[in-house]
Amino acid sequence: MLARDLLARLEQADISAVGVGRSGLDITDPDAVRRVLRAHRPALVVNCAAWTGVDEAEEKEAEAHAVNGTGPRLLAEECGALRAVLLQVSTDYVFDGSATRPYPEDAPTAPRTAYGRSKLAGERAVLEALAHTGYVVRTAWLFGEHGHSFVRTMMRLACGTDPVEVVDDQRGQPTWTGDLADRLVLLGRAALAGTAPPGIYHGTSAGDATWFALAAEVFTLLGADTSRVRPISSGRFVRPAARPTYSVLGHDRWQQAGIEPMSHWREAVARAWPGMCRAGATGPRSSARSGPAGSSPRSS
Questions:
Q1: C-alpha dihedral (58, 60, 62, 64), degrees to nearest 10
Q2: Is 285 helix (H, G, I), strand (E, B) or coil?
Q3: Which residues contact 36 (CB under 8 A, 6 or more apart)?
Q4: In a 10 Å sphere around its CB, with 0-12 CB exposed, 13-18 middle and 19+ buried, how is residue 284 labelled?
């Protein structure tokens, strides 16, 4: 979802880039990482690869850690040898979700899930190995034209007639992958120019919402009956991995890099909407109970 938008943005900016999928590079394999990066010798690497199954990670933490923790470490070590910049995409799950105001970039981390622990390990590996050329961009609640997302699920369910129950006690920032891709391009340019301090950035939209509010917005844009969207508590949608109650991130660090933070999430949904509709995010009628990822595996 993110990588395809990023490659499109790089092409539009006339920046030479190579996209390497899972079949072309297993980031948990040291020899493969070394071989692929030395073949291309990039000035900058963006790691969009991740184990995204939040619930599955609870039973397979070692496998999740290999992709989300070991993989970034191997990439960082090779980027260090090549003197390349690395942008590591991370997640709000590194926090415990108990805050009541936006998490600043330097807020203490306290992941409550195997997924969050694995992503935090990746963050630390990058920042330790690349003190001057390592960047972590945390994101959350992603939606876009490609792949699975909560927004695409709601677009499909809006075609039905049955009630759609959606969690209304978790708060975060719906973020369009197109906006995040734009910020990654800008941050990469600034990093190469030496104008962006290395470290942690928060790549999410401004404002905040609950999953229920986001679902209602989708129904409204489609002209569907919003009364069909009904709020429920997280307790009605129990999952193996605990979802953060509060996933709102602060964006102060972007100013230090001379880059504007993202706009409000409602604006992002409106700008993404034509492409989402062209992507054909509709399907058969059905009823559903939807939670934070209702939808979708994590995309960061």
A1: -80
A2: coil
A3: 20, 24, 25
A4: exposed
CA-CA distance, 173 to 179, in Å (whole number)? 13
The tokens 């949904």 sit on which residue? 269
Pairing relation of β-strands 199-202 and 134-139? parallel
What class is the 2-290 domain? alpha beta
Q: List the chain pLDDT tens, one digit each, 300 residues.
A: 999 999 999 999 999 999 999 999 999 999 999 999 999 999 999 999 999 999 999 999 999 999 999 999 999 999 999 999 999 999 999 999 999 999 999 999 999 999 999 999 999 999 999 999 999 999 999 999 998 999 999 999 999 999 999 999 999 999 999 999 999 999 999 999 999 999 999 999 999 999 999 999 999 999 999 999 999 999 998 899 999 999 999 999 999 999 999 999 999 999 999 999 998 744 333 334 344 333 333 333
Contact 183, 7 (CB under 8 A): no
115 given a catalytic annotation: yes
Q: Delimit the domains of the chain by residue range.
A: 2-290
| Distance between CA atoms of residues 270 and 48, nearest Å | 25
Q: Which residue of the set 93, 115, 201, 246 is catalytic?
A: 115
Alpha-carbon span 229 to 208, nearest angstrom? 19
DSSP bridge pairs for 135: 87, 199
What does the block give as tokens for 238? 């129990």
Start-end of H helices in the chain: 2-12, 30-40, 54-59, 61-65, 71-82, 114-129, 150-157, 177-193, 211-222, 253-256, 265-278
φ, ψ of residue 135 in degrees (nearest 5): -130, 135
CA distance 82 to 90: 23
Quick one: which H or E segment has residue 210?
strand 209-210
